[in-house]
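Hi R.,

Here's the input for the adenosine monophosphate complex you asked about:
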Amino acid sequence: MDFSAFGLSAPLLKAIAAQGYVTPYPIQEQAIPAILNEHDILGIAQTGSGKTASFALPLIEQFRERKPTRNRYVKTLVLVPTRELALQVATVFQSFSLYLGNRVKTLAVFGGVSINPQMKSMSGTDILVATPGRLLDLIENKAVHLSEVEVLVLDEADKMLNLGFAEEMDRIFALLPPKRQNLLFSATLADDIKAIKAKLLRNPVVISISSDTDETQVELIKQVAYRVTPEQKGPFLRYLIKQQNMEQVLVFVSSVRNADNLVVKLNKNGLEAMALHGEKSQGARTEALRRFKAGLVRILVATDLASRGIDIQFLPFVINYDLPRSPKDYVHRIGRTGRAGASGEAISLITPEDEHHFKIIQKKMKRLVETHETADVNLQGF
Ligand code: AMP
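And here is the predicted structure with adenosine monophosphate in place:
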């Protein structure tokens, strides 16, 4: 099957081809026709499954038949949990609208940056991608109105709830007109998601897609671990990066402080690195990610929070400098590599203190990770 089977218009098909997409992913096969037919959707899927295009394409197509959007009365509202995801999702909408001239405008809005430019840019916006808090600020400032929204998308709804957005989401729902199409995407179907489902969705088409937490995806990722002492961690990381000639590597740590310290050490040793974590300004986060994606910086050191939902294509290496607390986060982290069918390698550094926890992770994942001793490795000079 190819994308022309969905009956999408020529400018969209041209943009899809320009993105290099040839065959729709499973979630796209199911979601695109259902959304075009104005069904509500419950998608159990994560980043990596192709879910963004699965809703962006039909939602852009809907504008072909719509009357022009009234200024500041957006028609399509996409709520996302993080600033990075807002930018990423808006970019997908924009790249698919490339050949539509000025017909469809998408804007991303999020907190942590000044609100004034966002208020000005709102003019003429058809599709708004927003984090909940900033959206409410913009509504309060009368920069945007939700009374003419025709489609609501909740992307990564589980993370929105985890990050404590439940109350803000409720306030937003109350401002929406009752008659609308609702698309709910979540990695899990936990009880709180079931509650949102019951509240928002009418006879949804349910689509459940295996994702990067799925065994098949994990299969594509080569996993290895190295036993190190806490003192060896730093030198061993530098040894790995240099010895394996890693051109691009995402390194996970457990805290903001560890991220900043590690970046200083790496830079001191001639390895160019930047940090990505929740205490950086939005400008610094966006810039670090942009530079890393563009291949301008070799090493990105991140905490779990900042890494959520980030899509970096063809990232060959992920290193767990600190092991994550939950096995779910482990799988989520290693899923940053081996995306979209590409292979990748995930490396974990295991201190004696981590041994027990690492066993639990492997048990949960139902996979044994090849673990090497490092006593013989000469770390002199690293
Ligand atoms: P997402 O789950 O939306 O974050 O998408 C994961 C990655 O898959 C992104 O880099 C997309 O550009 C890519 N992608 C999505 N759909 C397709 C497709 N049909 N063919 C090739 N790549 C795709």
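One thing worth noting: The CA atoms of residues 29 and 54 lie 8 Å apart.

Cheers,
M.
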